[in-house]
Amino acid sequence: MAAFEYVALDADGKRRSGIISADSARSARKELRLRDLMVLNVDPVTEKQSKVTIRRGRLSDKQRVLLVRQLSVLLKSGLAVEQALGACAGNENPVSVQKAVHTVRADVVEGARLSDAMALAPDAFPPLVRAVTAAGEMSGKLGDIMERLATYLERSYQLRQKVRAALIYPALLTVMAMGMVIALMVVVVPRLVEQFDLFDAQLPLLTRIVIGLSNGVREYGILIVLVLAALIFLGVRLLRQPAIRRSLDRFVLRLPLIGPQTRIVAAARFARVFATLSASGATVLEALEGAKGAANNTVIADATDFIAERVREGGSLSGALAATGVFPPMMVHMVTSGEVGRDVSGMMNRAADFLDTEFETGSAALLALAEPLIIVLMGGIVGLIVMSIMLPILQLNTLAMS
Question: What region holds the Type II secretion system protein GspF domain (predicted)?
Answer without folding.
Answer: 68-190, 270-392
